[in-house]
Amino acid sequence: xQRRTLAIWIVLxxxxxxxxGNILFYQKSIGLSFPLFIISSxxxxxxATRPAQTPxxxxxxxxxxxxxxxxxMVAVREDExxxxxxxxxxxSLSALALHYLSIKERLDEATLPQQIGAVLTSGMxxxxxxxxxxxxxxxxxxxxxxxxxAAVSVVRGLVIALPIVIVFTVLLGSAxxxxxxxxxxxxxxxxxxxxxxxxxxAIITLSIGWLAIGSLAYGLSRRVSxxxxxxxxxxxxxxxxxxxxxxxxxxxxxxxxxxxxNVARFRLGMIESGIILGLVDLLFAAFVIIQFAYFFxxxxxxxxxxxxxxxxxxxxxxxxxxxxxxxxxxxLWLDYxxxxxxxxxxxxxxxxxxVIVALTSVxxxxxxxxxxxxxxxxxxxxxxxxxxxxxxxxGILFGVFLLxxxxxxxxxxxxxxxxxxxxxxxxxxxxxxDLYIAQRNIARYHEGQALxxxxxxxxxxDALPAIIPLHEELADNPEAQTWTGQWLARQLxxxxxxxxxGTIFSANLSGDSAWSTLDAxxxxxxxxxxxxxxxxxxxxxxxxxxxxxxxxxxxxSLTPTAVSPVP
Length: 567
What we know:
The chain has helices at residues 3-25, 33-48, 64-74, 80-100, 112-128, 130-143, 150-175, 177-190, 198-220, 270-295, 299-303, 309-337, 343-378, 382-405, 412-431, 433-446, 453-456, 464-473, 478-497, 509-520, 532-536; strands at residues 229-231, 253-255, 451-452, 544-545. By secondary structure, it is mainly alpha-helical.
């Protein structure tokens, strides 16, 4: 397909996507509309590759799986933080896919800077690339005869047919009430009001269409560049980056994209790197021994040093996380700058790094245990849960680092970072963070620990399955039940405000399920007081309850009296 012909098709497809976006998003809460839009855009892009003569790299198609997963989770979870992360992940991975689907380079062999650059380039082209496409499309209409052109014929047919269809629809609706009812049902089903807010809808359609045109242009109008063959001159044999053979030999023929990089300007010999790694090994080994003697030794061992178990756990978590991250960076840097002239040096280097990774893994286990103790002592929050889950995936990233150290695959670490990021957010989605936090804090309450009701009121409708049993359980504590009752009333108010149950494109699995449950128990829910949580919680007050009679609780107007700040 000629360049200008492709341009006009891209403009037409972009405007169609813009109109679809207007139908899905105009005056609607984000829900099922987001995955429908993402999946529709993917289908349009893939369908347009054949007429555009743009080959698709099938080895990179797997990236569409996490894109669709995170898009679908937008219609599953109600938690605003998770929803934002899902949308950001779906759009970022879509930009990455847009770059790598139309070129022959494999994503799993790209470096981390190349991946970040691909996302930024795709985003910039989506914003500014439309100028060139619109200009080319306009030039096509000026340079070609309109007669017989398929694209223009489609446009002309639509322009002529749409007003006729609208007029006939209005007339037939006036002539038959049943037909008019079906037409109205269709509009209500998609919650689309063609006559309302025409200016706003035009802005939305054109804005989304503009971005779609730029994105389609970036994915369809590029061509696979041919590789150039060059002769690499003789270079000094070296073993930087852990290679077991010299980087290049005299007269060797390689593709330009495989041309070896120059040795880093700053280089270290094996002696310097061995000293660095050896001293770090000794330091980490001493720390791990202390960990086994004290932290893994039990509460009595800690208290013998004049410390409480919870304070000991709380004091070192973030420091251990910082050590783990710095260690990972140190290993990557030394692997990059250290020159190993012999295989023996390369083996020693790897052994020293393996020891560091093993000792750091023990630290990660210690950090994870510290966070678990901290959560059990002071309760579960979003930041604590997010950080705790990150420990698991940071450990997996260290495993990827070892694969990189042994050169299992080209740029395996960069690919591993991408998979770890996908896995981390996927884990948060699957575990349902708000429900998990509510369940764990309520479990602590049943074990005699304090339950901060003011914090529970910050959770989304995802936590409903845990809050309803608690609300019923607090029947003998009217003050505490007031908090949970107001939380239920607020969730019902929020869900009804979002139009849950009324708009198909705003559908959200968790939200719709919560709305159905709350709607069925309206008689058991108090009247929503919008000022309740504003006066009693947002000013830093806490309302704690206990499952036994050890601690008194009181109630004074809208502000709790017998309270204590949660650390």
